[in-house]
Amino acid sequence: MQCHTCGSSENGEAAFSVALGRAYAKRPPPRLPAFPVDFFERSTCVTTNPDISLSGDVTHNSTSANAKARLSSNTDDFVSSPHKTSLTLHVHNTSSEQLIVGVRVLLGSAHPQHVPASFTLFNRTIVTQEGQRRWYDVPFSETEAVVGQRQITIVFSSTHSGVNVPVLDAIDVYAQSKADFGWDRVVATLTEKYKIAMPTLSERR
After folding, report:
1. Model pTM?
2. Cα 47 to Cα 88: distance, rounded to the nearest angstrom
């Protein structure tokens, strides 16, 4: 038996995230808050959870499960882009009880000359170091976490030289429960900040 109240709640949350994403994209890139040094220790690595799946260029001629295995931080495997100009990665979260709050990206491990020059997510860009093996820690702001509660998209640019195809070595996805995140408080704050009209219960049905 389907829980209509739960379904309405999830639909309302999804609609809010979409509306927030549109409002957020229209504004200039904000100055990010200072993240605590133990940010990732306060969350849980959920990359291997069945609620998390991958798509985009990383599943070219492959599957989400295979891409997750190849991009595990426990292996030396990697994924190459099917083209030189970019590599796109979509991370999907189907859990209604948690949301993604950050990612850690490994570049330059298998092929140092295949490091993308930068990668973007939401409306910020992270510049990389050419020819170096390095983990890039990307904690999300509260706004970013709410916008990306169901899906985040990371676009890796061409390599520094532009000659080689970009390569992604590993990705770790971190999440928090909505209770630990403070979902209700954050949504109330963002609703006021971005002047987002929330649908009524009848509209959600």
Report:
1. 0.88
2. 17
